[in-house]
Protein backbone atom coordinates (compact mmCIF):
# COMPACT_ATOMS: atom_id res chain seq x y z
CA UNK A 1 0.00 0.00 0.00
CA UNK A 2 1.49 3.32 -1.08
CA UNK A 3 2.54 5.80 1.55
CA UNK A 4 2.17 9.53 1.52
CA UNK A 5 4.01 12.12 3.52
CA UNK A 6 2.49 13.15 6.82
CA UNK A 7 1.20 16.68 6.99
CA UNK A 8 4.08 18.91 8.02
CA UNK A 9 1.99 21.15 10.21
CA UNK A 10 2.85 20.79 13.87
CA UNK A 11 -0.19 19.67 15.87
CA UNK A 12 -1.89 22.37 17.83
CA UNK A 13 -4.07 20.78 20.40
CA UNK A 14 -5.19 20.75 23.98
CA UNK A 15 -3.06 21.37 27.01
CA UNK A 16 -4.48 20.22 30.31
CA UNK A 17 -4.03 23.10 32.65
CA UNK A 18 -5.03 23.25 36.29
CA UNK A 19 -4.67 26.28 38.48
CA UNK A 20 -3.99 25.58 42.17
CA UNK A 21 -5.19 28.31 44.50
CA UNK A 22 -4.35 28.76 48.16
CA UNK A 23 -7.35 29.32 50.43
CA UNK A 24 -7.13 32.95 51.65
CA UNK A 25 -7.30 33.60 55.37
CA UNK A 26 -10.54 35.52 55.54
CA UNK A 27 -9.96 36.68 59.11
CA UNK A 28 -7.30 39.11 57.84
CA UNK A 29 -9.72 40.70 55.40
CA UNK A 30 -12.04 43.57 56.13
CA UNK A 31 -15.67 42.73 55.45
CA UNK A 32 -17.20 45.23 53.02
CA UNK A 33 -20.95 45.26 52.61
CA UNK A 34 -20.69 43.73 49.15
CA UNK A 35 -17.73 41.35 49.30
CA UNK A 36 -17.76 40.49 45.62
CA UNK A 37 -18.98 42.99 43.07
CA UNK A 38 -20.62 42.20 39.76
CA UNK A 39 -21.14 38.53 40.55
CA UNK A 40 -24.71 37.53 39.72
CA UNK A 41 -26.58 34.29 39.85
CA UNK A 42 -27.31 34.00 36.17
CA UNK A 43 -26.93 30.45 34.88
CA UNK A 44 -24.37 29.66 32.18
CA UNK A 45 -25.71 29.86 28.65
CA UNK A 46 -26.76 26.72 26.84
CA UNK A 47 -24.54 25.94 23.91
CA UNK A 48 -27.08 24.26 21.66
CA UNK A 49 -28.87 25.97 18.81
CA UNK A 50 -32.06 24.71 17.25
CA UNK A 51 -31.12 24.40 13.59
CA UNK A 52 -28.01 23.46 11.64
CA UNK A 53 -26.14 26.61 10.63
CA UNK A 54 -23.36 25.53 8.30
CA UNK A 55 -23.76 27.12 4.89
CA UNK A 56 -23.71 24.71 1.91
CA UNK A 57 -21.22 26.03 -0.57
CA UNK A 58 -18.35 25.08 -2.77
CA UNK A 59 -15.89 23.33 -0.43
CA UNK A 60 -12.95 25.00 -2.13
CA UNK A 61 -14.21 28.38 -0.97
CA UNK A 62 -14.52 27.41 2.67
CA UNK A 63 -11.23 29.02 3.60
CA UNK A 64 -12.24 32.26 1.90
CA UNK A 65 -15.52 32.28 3.78
CA UNK A 66 -13.71 31.83 7.08
CA UNK A 67 -11.21 34.60 6.30
CA UNK A 68 -13.96 36.96 5.20
CA UNK A 69 -15.96 36.25 8.33
CA UNK A 70 -12.92 36.91 10.50
CA UNK A 71 -12.14 40.20 8.71
CA UNK A 72 -15.73 41.38 8.98
CA UNK A 73 -15.75 40.59 12.67
CA UNK A 74 -12.57 42.56 13.34
CA UNK A 75 -13.60 45.60 11.30
CA UNK A 76 -17.24 45.78 12.25
CA UNK A 77 -18.41 43.35 14.94
CA UNK A 78 -22.09 42.53 14.48
CA UNK A 79 -24.47 44.12 16.93
CA UNK A 80 -26.91 41.28 16.49
CA UNK A 81 -26.66 38.15 14.33
CA UNK A 82 -29.01 38.09 11.38
CA UNK A 83 -31.35 35.21 10.72
CA UNK A 84 -31.28 33.55 7.36
CA UNK A 85 -34.64 33.37 5.54
CA UNK A 86 -36.86 30.77 7.13
CA UNK A 87 -34.47 30.13 10.00
CA UNK A 88 -35.85 29.62 13.51
CA UNK A 89 -32.49 29.64 15.23
CA UNK A 90 -32.28 31.60 18.47
CA UNK A 91 -29.26 33.87 18.87
CA UNK A 92 -27.87 35.51 21.94
CA UNK A 93 -28.81 39.18 22.29
CA UNK A 94 -26.22 41.02 24.37
CA UNK A 95 -28.81 43.52 25.55
CA UNK A 96 -30.92 40.71 26.97
CA UNK A 97 -28.07 38.58 28.17
CA UNK A 98 -25.62 41.13 29.51
CA UNK A 99 -22.70 39.12 30.78
CA UNK A 100 -22.31 36.00 32.85
CA UNK A 101 -21.91 38.07 36.01
CA UNK A 102 -25.39 39.53 35.79
CA UNK A 103 -24.31 43.01 34.67
CA UNK A 104 -26.19 44.23 31.61
CA UNK A 105 -23.89 45.18 28.75
CA UNK A 106 -25.48 47.79 26.46
CA UNK A 107 -23.76 47.94 23.10
CA UNK A 108 -22.74 51.44 22.09
CA UNK A 109 -24.99 52.92 19.43
CA UNK A 110 -22.03 54.71 17.86
CA UNK A 111 -19.86 53.22 15.16
CA UNK A 112 -17.66 50.42 16.49
CA UNK A 113 -14.57 52.43 15.70
CA UNK A 114 -15.61 55.37 17.86
CA UNK A 115 -16.09 55.86 21.58
CA UNK A 116 -18.22 58.32 23.55
CA UNK A 117 -16.53 61.66 24.12
CA UNK A 118 -14.27 61.63 27.14
CA UNK A 119 -14.02 57.85 27.17
CA UNK A 120 -11.85 57.01 24.22
CA UNK A 121 -11.18 53.28 24.48
CA UNK A 122 -11.63 53.13 28.26
CA UNK A 123 -14.16 51.81 30.72
CA UNK A 124 -15.94 54.56 32.63
CA UNK A 125 -15.75 52.58 35.87
CA UNK A 126 -12.18 51.39 36.13
CA UNK A 127 -10.55 53.34 33.30
CA UNK A 128 -9.14 50.13 31.79
CA UNK A 129 -8.77 49.61 28.04
CA UNK A 130 -11.28 47.57 26.11
CA UNK A 131 -10.65 45.16 23.27
CA UNK A 132 -12.50 45.54 19.99
CA UNK A 133 -13.21 41.82 20.14
CA UNK A 134 -14.51 42.03 23.72
CA UNK A 135 -16.30 45.40 24.05
CA UNK A 136 -17.35 44.69 27.63
CA UNK A 137 -15.13 45.51 30.60
CA UNK A 138 -11.85 43.53 30.75
CA UNK A 139 -12.84 42.36 34.21
CA UNK A 140 -16.02 40.77 32.91
CA UNK A 141 -16.20 37.25 31.40
CA UNK A 142 -16.82 36.73 27.71
CA UNK A 143 -20.49 36.91 26.81
CA UNK A 144 -22.39 34.35 24.79
CA UNK A 145 -22.12 36.59 21.73
CA UNK A 146 -18.34 36.85 22.22
CA UNK A 147 -18.08 33.06 22.17
CA UNK A 148 -20.45 32.73 19.23
CA UNK A 149 -18.55 35.16 17.00
CA UNK A 150 -15.06 34.03 18.01
CA UNK A 151 -13.41 32.20 15.11
CA UNK A 152 -11.16 29.90 17.13
CA UNK A 153 -11.54 26.73 19.21
CA UNK A 154 -10.73 26.85 22.91
CA UNK A 155 -8.75 24.26 24.85
CA UNK A 156 -10.70 21.83 27.03
CA UNK A 157 -9.34 19.52 29.71
CA UNK A 158 -9.46 15.82 28.87
CA UNK A 159 -12.39 15.03 31.14
CA UNK A 160 -14.84 12.32 29.98
CA UNK A 161 -17.74 14.16 31.65
CA UNK A 162 -17.18 17.27 29.52
CA UNK A 163 -16.89 15.23 26.33
CA UNK A 164 -20.01 13.19 27.17
CA UNK A 165 -22.04 16.38 27.60
CA UNK A 166 -20.68 17.76 24.32
CA UNK A 167 -21.58 14.55 22.45
CA UNK A 168 -25.10 14.60 23.88
CA UNK A 169 -25.61 18.26 22.98
CA UNK A 170 -24.46 17.53 19.44
CA UNK A 171 -27.27 14.98 19.19
CA UNK A 172 -25.61 11.60 19.85
CA UNK A 173 -27.52 10.96 23.07
CA UNK A 174 -26.98 7.19 22.88
CA UNK A 175 -23.20 7.56 23.31
CA UNK A 176 -21.19 7.94 26.49
CA UNK A 177 -17.52 8.77 27.09
CA UNK A 178 -15.51 6.87 29.69
CA UNK A 179 -11.90 6.94 30.82
CA UNK A 180 -9.81 3.85 30.06
CA UNK A 181 -7.41 2.94 32.86
CA UNK A 182 -5.92 -0.17 31.23
CA UNK A 183 -6.11 -1.82 27.82
CA UNK A 184 -6.22 -5.44 28.96
CA UNK A 185 -9.28 -7.51 28.15
CA UNK A 186 -10.57 -7.62 31.72
CA UNK A 187 -10.43 -3.83 32.16
CA UNK A 188 -12.10 -3.17 28.82
CA UNK A 189 -14.90 -5.61 29.64
CA UNK A 190 -15.90 -3.37 32.57
CA UNK A 191 -16.66 -0.48 30.23
CA UNK A 192 -20.11 -0.01 28.68
CA UNK A 193 -20.53 -2.20 25.63
CA UNK A 194 -20.21 -2.02 22.72
CA UNK A 195 -17.13 0.20 22.52
CA UNK A 196 -17.23 2.31 19.36
CA UNK A 197 -13.70 3.69 19.44
CA UNK A 198 -10.71 4.87 21.48
CA UNK A 199 -9.19 8.34 21.67
CA UNK A 200 -5.58 8.74 22.77
CA UNK A 201 -4.43 12.02 24.30
CA UNK A 202 -0.67 12.56 24.47
CA UNK A 203 1.86 15.37 24.43
CA UNK A 204 2.13 16.45 20.82
CA UNK A 205 5.05 14.93 18.96
CA UNK A 206 5.69 13.09 15.72
CA UNK A 207 4.51 9.48 15.68
CA UNK A 208 4.89 6.69 13.15
CA UNK A 209 2.56 7.20 10.20
CA UNK A 210 2.13 3.53 9.26
CA UNK A 211 0.42 2.61 6.00
CA UNK A 212 -1.23 5.91 5.17
CA UNK A 213 -3.70 5.84 2.31
CA UNK A 214 -3.20 7.82 -0.89
CA UNK A 215 -6.79 9.05 -0.60
CA UNK A 216 -9.66 8.81 1.85
CA UNK A 217 -11.57 5.53 1.37
CA UNK A 218 -15.22 6.00 0.46
CA UNK A 219 -16.47 4.15 3.52
CA UNK A 220 -14.47 6.31 5.94
CA UNK A 221 -15.54 9.78 7.05
CA UNK A 222 -12.36 11.61 7.99
CA UNK A 223 -11.62 15.32 8.45
CA UNK A 224 -8.32 17.14 8.83
CA UNK A 225 -7.50 19.53 11.63
CA UNK A 226 -6.73 22.99 10.32
CA UNK A 227 -3.56 24.73 11.52
CA UNK A 228 -3.72 26.86 14.67
CA UNK A 229 -7.01 25.38 15.86
CA UNK A 230 -7.51 23.57 19.16
CA UNK A 231 -10.32 21.45 17.77
CA UNK A 232 -8.57 18.07 17.87
CA UNK A 233 -10.66 16.69 20.76
CA UNK A 234 -13.95 17.54 19.07
CA UNK A 235 -12.55 16.41 15.72
CA UNK A 236 -11.46 13.04 17.14
CA UNK A 237 -14.94 12.46 18.57
CA UNK A 238 -16.58 13.44 15.27
CA UNK A 239 -14.25 11.14 13.34
CA UNK A 240 -15.67 8.31 15.45
CA UNK A 241 -19.32 9.38 15.59
CA UNK A 242 -19.56 9.85 11.83
CA UNK A 243 -18.37 6.27 11.21
CA UNK A 244 -20.68 4.35 13.58
CA UNK A 245 -23.31 2.52 11.51
CA UNK A 246 -26.99 2.79 12.50
CA UNK A 247 -26.26 5.36 15.22
CA UNK A 248 -28.59 8.30 15.71
CA UNK A 249 -26.22 11.29 15.75
CA UNK A 250 -28.94 13.93 15.61
CA UNK A 251 -30.21 16.08 12.76
CA UNK A 252 -27.35 18.59 12.85
CA UNK A 253 -24.51 16.08 12.54
CA UNK A 254 -26.46 13.89 10.12
CA UNK A 255 -27.03 16.80 7.74
CA UNK A 256 -23.39 17.84 8.08
CA UNK A 257 -22.28 14.27 7.33
CA UNK A 258 -24.43 14.15 4.19
CA UNK A 259 -23.35 17.63 3.13
CA UNK A 260 -19.63 16.74 3.38
CA UNK A 261 -19.94 13.18 2.03
CA UNK A 262 -18.04 13.98 -1.19
CA UNK A 263 -15.53 16.40 0.38
CA UNK A 264 -11.84 15.73 0.76
CA UNK A 265 -10.55 15.46 4.36
CA UNK A 266 -9.13 18.98 4.17
CA UNK A 267 -12.39 20.41 2.81
CA UNK A 268 -14.25 18.67 5.64
CA UNK A 269 -11.89 20.33 8.10
CA UNK A 270 -12.61 23.71 6.51
CA UNK A 271 -16.35 23.06 6.66
CA UNK A 272 -16.07 22.04 10.31
CA UNK A 273 -14.22 25.25 11.16
CA UNK A 274 -17.24 27.22 9.92
CA UNK A 275 -19.87 24.86 11.40
CA UNK A 276 -21.03 27.18 14.18
CA UNK A 277 -23.34 24.58 15.77
CA UNK A 278 -20.39 22.38 16.78
CA UNK A 279 -18.12 25.35 17.43
CA UNK A 280 -20.67 26.90 19.79
CA UNK A 281 -20.89 23.70 21.84
CA UNK A 282 -17.09 23.40 21.94
CA UNK A 283 -16.53 27.05 22.85
CA UNK A 284 -19.23 27.03 25.52
CA UNK A 285 -16.35 25.87 27.76
CA UNK A 286 -14.21 28.86 26.79
CA UNK A 287 -13.22 31.53 29.26
CA UNK A 288 -12.15 34.96 28.14
CA UNK A 289 -8.56 34.22 29.12
CA UNK A 290 -8.62 31.03 27.01
CA UNK A 291 -9.75 33.04 24.00
CA UNK A 292 -7.16 35.75 24.55
CA UNK A 293 -4.38 33.17 24.99
CA UNK A 294 -5.38 31.38 21.78
CA UNK A 295 -5.47 34.66 19.85
CA UNK A 296 -2.11 35.66 21.30
CA UNK A 297 -0.60 32.32 20.33
CA UNK A 298 -1.88 32.66 16.77
CA UNK A 299 -0.61 36.23 16.57
CA UNK A 300 2.82 35.09 17.77
CA UNK A 301 2.92 32.44 15.04
CA UNK A 302 2.06 35.00 12.37
CA UNK A 303 4.56 37.45 13.82
CA UNK A 304 7.38 34.90 13.73
CA UNK A 305 6.71 34.02 10.12
CA UNK A 306 6.40 37.63 8.97
CA UNK A 307 9.11 39.17 11.18
CA UNK A 308 12.09 40.67 9.37
CA UNK A 309 15.24 40.89 11.54
CA UNK A 310 16.36 44.42 12.39
CA UNK A 311 19.60 45.82 10.95
CA UNK A 312 20.67 46.79 14.48
CA UNK A 313 20.96 43.78 16.75
CA UNK A 314 19.82 44.25 20.36
CA UNK A 315 22.34 44.24 23.14
CA UNK A 316 23.29 40.95 24.67
CA UNK A 317 21.16 41.34 27.81
CA UNK A 318 18.49 43.55 26.23
CA UNK A 319 15.35 41.42 26.42
CA UNK A 320 12.35 42.84 24.59
CA UNK A 321 8.65 42.20 24.95
CA UNK A 322 8.92 40.19 21.72
CA UNK A 323 11.42 37.86 23.45
CA UNK A 324 9.05 37.45 26.38
CA UNK A 325 6.08 36.72 24.12
CA UNK A 326 8.10 34.20 22.13
CA UNK A 327 9.12 32.44 25.35
CA UNK A 328 5.49 32.19 26.39
CA UNK A 329 4.56 30.97 22.93
CA UNK A 330 7.23 28.27 23.10
CA UNK A 331 5.89 27.17 26.49
CA UNK A 332 2.42 27.07 24.96
CA UNK A 333 3.59 24.76 22.19
CA UNK A 334 5.64 22.58 24.55
CA UNK A 335 2.51 21.93 26.60
CA UNK A 336 0.37 21.20 23.55
CA UNK A 337 -1.47 17.88 23.51
CA UNK A 338 -3.01 15.96 20.66
CA UNK A 339 -5.93 13.56 20.20
CA UNK A 340 -5.99 10.55 17.85
CA UNK A 341 -8.99 8.29 17.20
CA UNK A 342 -8.89 4.49 16.75
CA UNK A 343 -11.95 2.57 15.57
CA UNK A 344 -13.14 -0.32 13.39
CA UNK A 345 -14.79 0.35 10.01
CA UNK A 346 -15.94 -2.44 7.70
CA UNK A 347 -13.53 -5.07 9.00
CA UNK A 348 -10.46 -2.80 9.21
CA UNK A 349 -9.01 -0.96 12.20
CA UNK A 350 -8.26 2.67 11.39
CA UNK A 351 -6.12 5.34 13.01
CA UNK A 352 -7.71 8.72 12.34
CA UNK A 353 -5.30 11.55 13.13
CA UNK A 354 -6.48 14.98 12.02
CA UNK A 355 -2.87 16.00 11.37
CA UNK A 356 -2.43 13.18 8.84
CA UNK A 357 -3.43 13.83 5.25
CA UNK A 358 -5.43 10.60 5.07
CA UNK A 359 -6.51 7.71 7.35
CA UNK A 360 -4.03 5.02 8.34
CA UNK A 361 -4.99 1.35 8.20
CA UNK A 362 -3.84 -0.81 11.13
CA UNK A 363 -4.96 -4.02 9.46
CA UNK A 364 -8.04 -6.24 9.31
CA UNK A 365 -9.73 -7.82 12.31
CA UNK A 366 -11.90 -10.90 12.67
CA UNK A 367 -13.80 -11.15 15.94
CA UNK A 368 -15.27 -14.51 14.96
CA UNK A 369 -11.78 -16.03 14.93
CA UNK A 370 -10.62 -14.20 18.05
CA UNK A 371 -8.84 -11.28 16.36
CA UNK A 372 -10.56 -8.41 18.15
CA UNK A 373 -10.25 -4.86 16.84
CA UNK A 374 -9.58 -3.54 20.34
CA UNK A 375 -6.47 -5.72 20.61
CA UNK A 376 -5.08 -4.32 17.34
CA UNK A 377 -5.81 -0.74 18.39
CA UNK A 378 -4.37 -1.33 21.88
CA UNK A 379 -1.05 -2.50 20.44
CA UNK A 380 -0.65 0.71 18.45
CA UNK A 381 -1.74 2.88 21.36
CA UNK A 382 0.77 1.14 23.62
CA UNK A 383 3.56 1.76 21.10
CA UNK A 384 2.74 5.48 21.00
CA UNK A 385 2.69 5.73 24.80
CA UNK A 386 5.99 3.88 25.17
CA UNK A 387 7.72 6.10 22.62
CA UNK A 388 8.00 8.98 25.05
CA UNK A 389 6.95 10.17 28.49
CA UNK A 390 4.02 9.26 30.67
CA UNK A 391 1.79 12.23 29.86
CA UNK A 392 -1.14 10.56 28.18
CA UNK A 393 -4.75 9.58 28.69
CA UNK A 394 -7.20 7.25 26.94
CA UNK A 395 -10.95 7.63 26.65
CA UNK A 396 -13.51 5.39 24.98
CA UNK A 397 -16.72 6.22 23.15
CA UNK A 398 -19.27 3.52 23.90
CA UNK A 399 -22.98 2.91 23.95
CA UNK A 400 -24.57 4.75 26.86
CA UNK A 401 -25.61 2.28 29.60
CA UNK A 402 -29.03 3.94 29.72
CA UNK A 403 -29.74 2.78 26.18
CA UNK A 404 -29.11 -0.86 27.00
CA UNK A 405 -30.89 -0.72 30.36
CA UNK A 406 -34.02 0.81 28.85
CA UNK A 407 -34.06 -1.72 26.03
CA UNK A 408 -33.63 -4.59 28.51
CA UNK A 409 -36.51 -3.23 30.60
CA UNK A 410 -38.74 -3.21 27.52
CA UNK A 411 -37.75 -6.80 26.67
CA UNK A 412 -38.27 -7.79 30.31
CA UNK A 413 -41.80 -6.36 30.23
CA UNK A 414 -42.68 -8.11 26.98
CA UNK A 415 -41.27 -11.40 28.26
CA UNK A 416 -43.24 -10.98 31.47
CA UNK A 417 -46.43 -10.61 29.44
CA UNK A 418 -45.48 -13.70 27.41
CA UNK A 419 -45.07 -15.71 30.62
CA UNK A 420 -48.38 -14.43 32.03
CA UNK A 421 -50.16 -15.43 28.85
CA UNK A 422 -48.67 -18.91 29.01
CA UNK A 423 -49.66 -19.27 32.69
CA UNK A 424 -53.23 -18.19 31.93
CA UNK A 425 -53.38 -20.86 29.26
CA UNK A 426 -52.14 -23.63 31.55
CA UNK A 427 -54.08 -22.68 34.71
CA UNK A 428 -56.23 -19.51 34.92
CA UNK A 429 -56.29 -19.75 38.74
CA UNK A 430 -52.54 -19.50 39.22
CA UNK A 431 -52.73 -15.82 40.31
CA UNK A 432 -54.55 -16.71 43.54
CA UNK A 433 -51.48 -18.48 44.87
CA UNK A 434 -48.74 -16.09 43.69
CA UNK A 435 -47.46 -13.00 45.50
CA UNK A 436 -44.21 -11.11 45.39
CA UNK A 437 -41.82 -10.41 48.23
CA UNK A 438 -43.91 -7.51 49.53
CA UNK A 439 -47.05 -9.66 49.58
CA UNK A 440 -48.73 -7.95 46.63
CA UNK A 441 -49.35 -9.27 43.17
CA UNK A 442 -47.17 -7.66 40.49
CA UNK A 443 -49.15 -5.08 38.56
CA UNK A 444 -48.64 -4.63 34.79
CA UNK A 445 -46.48 -1.66 33.83
CA UNK A 446 -48.26 1.42 32.50
CA UNK A 447 -47.14 3.98 29.88
CA UNK A 448 -46.57 6.51 32.66
CA UNK A 449 -44.11 4.10 34.28
CA UNK A 450 -42.02 3.93 31.11
CA UNK A 451 -42.21 7.70 30.60
CA UNK A 452 -40.82 8.22 34.10
CA UNK A 453 -37.66 6.38 33.06
CA UNK A 454 -37.24 8.03 29.68
CA UNK A 455 -38.73 5.22 27.58
CA UNK A 456 -40.89 6.33 24.67
CA UNK A 457 -43.50 4.25 22.90
CA UNK A 458 -41.36 3.69 19.80
CA UNK A 459 -38.55 2.32 21.96
CA UNK A 460 -40.93 -0.16 23.54
CA UNK A 461 -42.29 -1.18 20.13
CA UNK A 462 -38.77 -1.68 18.71
CA UNK A 463 -37.70 -3.99 21.56
CA UNK A 464 -37.94 -7.60 20.39
CA UNK A 465 -37.91 -10.77 22.49
CA UNK A 466 -35.31 -13.22 21.13
CA UNK A 467 -36.98 -16.03 19.22
CA UNK A 468 -35.08 -18.61 21.26
CA UNK A 469 -36.51 -17.19 24.51
CA UNK A 470 -40.05 -17.30 23.12
CA UNK A 471 -39.61 -20.98 22.28
CA UNK A 472 -38.33 -21.74 25.80
CA UNK A 473 -41.28 -19.97 27.46
CA UNK A 474 -43.77 -21.81 25.25
CA UNK A 475 -42.27 -25.17 26.23
CA UNK A 476 -42.13 -24.65 30.03
CA UNK A 477 -44.63 -26.10 32.51
CA UNK A 478 -46.54 -24.32 35.26
CA UNK A 479 -43.95 -24.57 38.05
CA UNK A 480 -41.15 -23.47 35.71
CA UNK A 481 -43.18 -20.51 34.50
CA UNK A 482 -43.94 -19.41 38.06
CA UNK A 483 -40.22 -19.41 38.86
CA UNK A 484 -39.43 -17.55 35.63
CA UNK A 485 -42.03 -14.95 36.51
CA UNK A 486 -40.37 -14.37 39.89
CA UNK A 487 -37.00 -13.99 38.17
CA UNK A 488 -38.44 -11.46 35.74
CA UNK A 489 -39.88 -9.41 38.59
CA UNK A 490 -36.50 -9.34 40.34
CA UNK A 491 -34.80 -8.45 37.06
CA UNK A 492 -37.25 -5.59 36.51
CA UNK A 493 -36.44 -4.05 39.90
CA UNK A 494 -32.71 -4.37 39.21
CA UNK A 495 -33.09 -2.67 35.81
CA UNK A 496 -35.11 0.17 37.33
CA UNK A 497 -32.37 0.73 39.91
CA UNK A 498 -29.73 0.69 37.17
CA UNK A 499 -31.65 3.26 35.11
CA UNK A 500 -32.00 5.52 38.15
CA UNK A 501 -28.27 5.26 38.88
CA UNK A 502 -27.30 6.02 35.28
CA UNK A 503 -29.68 8.99 35.13
CA UNK A 504 -28.08 10.32 38.32
CA UNK A 505 -24.64 9.92 36.72
CA UNK A 506 -25.74 11.88 33.66
CA UNK A 507 -27.15 14.63 35.86
CA UNK A 508 -23.81 14.83 37.68
CA UNK A 509 -21.98 15.07 34.34
CA UNK A 510 -24.26 17.92 33.29
CA UNK A 511 -23.71 19.71 36.59
CA UNK A 512 -19.94 19.26 36.31
CA UNK A 513 -19.98 20.68 32.78
CA UNK A 514 -22.04 23.68 33.90
CA UNK A 515 -19.55 24.41 36.67
CA UNK A 516 -16.70 24.20 34.16
CA UNK A 517 -18.48 26.55 31.78
CA UNK A 518 -18.75 29.22 34.43
CA UNK A 519 -15.97 31.80 34.26
CA UNK A 520 -14.67 32.53 37.76
CA UNK A 521 -11.98 34.88 36.48
CA UNK A 522 -13.74 38.09 37.52
CA UNK A 523 -14.45 36.70 40.99
CA UNK A 524 -10.81 35.68 41.50
CA UNK A 525 -9.58 39.01 40.16
CA UNK A 526 -11.84 41.00 42.48
CA UNK A 527 -10.91 38.82 45.44
CA UNK A 528 -7.20 39.37 44.83
CA UNK A 529 -7.78 43.09 44.45
CA UNK A 530 -9.44 43.15 47.86
CA UNK A 531 -6.57 41.17 49.37
CA UNK A 532 -4.13 43.67 47.90
CA UNK A 533 -6.16 46.65 49.11
CA UNK A 534 -6.22 45.24 52.64
CA UNK A 535 -2.48 44.60 52.60
CA UNK A 536 -2.90 40.87 53.06
CA UNK A 537 -1.04 39.90 49.88
CA UNK A 538 2.00 41.95 50.78
CA UNK A 539 2.08 40.52 54.30
CA UNK A 540 1.87 36.92 53.11
CA UNK A 541 3.70 37.12 49.80
CA UNK A 542 6.49 34.91 51.12
CA UNK A 543 3.95 32.08 51.56
CA UNK A 544 3.30 31.98 47.83
CA UNK A 545 6.77 32.69 46.48
CA UNK A 546 10.14 31.30 47.69
CA UNK A 547 12.36 33.93 49.29
CA UNK A 548 15.01 33.72 46.56
CA UNK A 549 12.51 34.22 43.75
CA UNK A 550 10.79 36.97 45.70
CA UNK A 551 14.07 38.84 46.17
CA UNK A 552 14.92 38.31 42.49
CA UNK A 553 11.54 39.69 41.40
CA UNK A 554 11.86 42.70 43.69
CA UNK A 555 15.35 43.40 42.32
CA UNK A 556 14.03 43.29 38.75
CA UNK A 557 11.21 45.64 39.65
CA UNK A 558 13.65 48.04 41.30
CA UNK A 559 15.96 47.88 38.29
CA UNK A 560 13.12 48.67 35.90
CA UNK A 561 12.07 51.56 38.12
CA UNK A 562 15.60 52.95 37.99
CA UNK A 563 15.67 52.77 34.22
Instruction: Give the name of the CATH superfamily of the largest domain.
Output: Peptidase C12, ubiquitin carboxyl-terminal hydrolase
Mean pLDDT across every amino acid position? 72
Instruction: Report strand order across the widest sheet.
Output: 1-7-2-4-5-6-3
Low-confidence stretches: 1-52, 55-129, 310-332
Could you outline the blueprint of secondary structure elements for this entry?
Layout: H1 62-75, H2 94-97, H3 144-149, H4 160-170, E1 175-179, H5 185-189, E2 195-203, E3 211-212, H6 232-241, H7 250-259, H8 265-273, H9 276-283, H10 288-306, H11 321-334, E4 337-345, E5 348-352, E6 360-364, H12 373-386, E7 392-399, H13 401-426, H14 447-452, H15 457-462, H16 467-475, H17 478-517, H18 521-533, H19 536-539, H20 541-544, H21 547-562
Antiparallel strand pairs: 1-7, 2-4, 2-7, 3-6, 4-5, 5-6
Helix pairs in contact: 4-17, 10-11, 13-16, 13-17
Keywords: Hydrolase, Protease, Thiol protease, Ubl conjugation pathway
Organism: Lojkania enalia
Region (Disordered): 1-144
Can you offer a commentary on this structure?
There is one protein chain. It contains 21 helices and seven strands. It has helices spanning 62-75, 94-97, 144-149, 160-170, 185-189, 232-241, 250-259, 265-273, 276-283, 288-306, 321-334, 373-386, 401-426, 447-452, 457-462, 467-475, 478-517, 521-533, 536-539, 541-544, 547-562; strands at residues 175-179, 195-203, 211-212, 337-345, 348-352, 360-364, 392-399. The protein has a seven-stranded antiparallel beta sheet, sandwiched between helices. The radius of gyration is 29 Å and the shape is globular. The chain has three domains: 26-80 and 90-106 and 129-305 and 321-399, Ubiquitin C-terminal Hydrolase UCH-l3 (3-Layer(aba) Sandwich), CATH 3.40.532; 402-513, no CATH class; 521-562, no CATH class. It is α+β, with helices and mostly antiparallel strands. Helices cover 44% and strands 8% of the residues. The relative contact order is 0.14. GO terms for molecular function: cysteine-type deubiquitinase activity. One of its GO terms (biological process) is ubiquitin-dependent protein catabolic process. The active site is at 232 (nucleophile), 338 (proton donor).
Amino acid sequence: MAKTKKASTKPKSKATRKAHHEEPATKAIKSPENIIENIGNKAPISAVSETPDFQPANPSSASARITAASDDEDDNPPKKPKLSPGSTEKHYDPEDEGDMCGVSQKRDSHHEGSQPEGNQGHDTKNDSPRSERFPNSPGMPATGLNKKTWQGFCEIECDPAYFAVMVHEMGATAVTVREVFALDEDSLSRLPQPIYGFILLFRARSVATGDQEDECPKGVWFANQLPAQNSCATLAMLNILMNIPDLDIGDHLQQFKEFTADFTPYARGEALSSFSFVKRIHNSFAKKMDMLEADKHLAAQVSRKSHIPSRISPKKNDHTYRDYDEDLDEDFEENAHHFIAFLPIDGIVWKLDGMDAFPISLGPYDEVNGKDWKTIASDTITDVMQSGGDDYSIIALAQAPLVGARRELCINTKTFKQVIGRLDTLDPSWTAFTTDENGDAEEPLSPSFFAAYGIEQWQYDDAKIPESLINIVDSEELDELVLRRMDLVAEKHALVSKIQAEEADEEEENAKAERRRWDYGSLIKRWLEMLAENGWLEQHLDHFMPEEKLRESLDKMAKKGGE
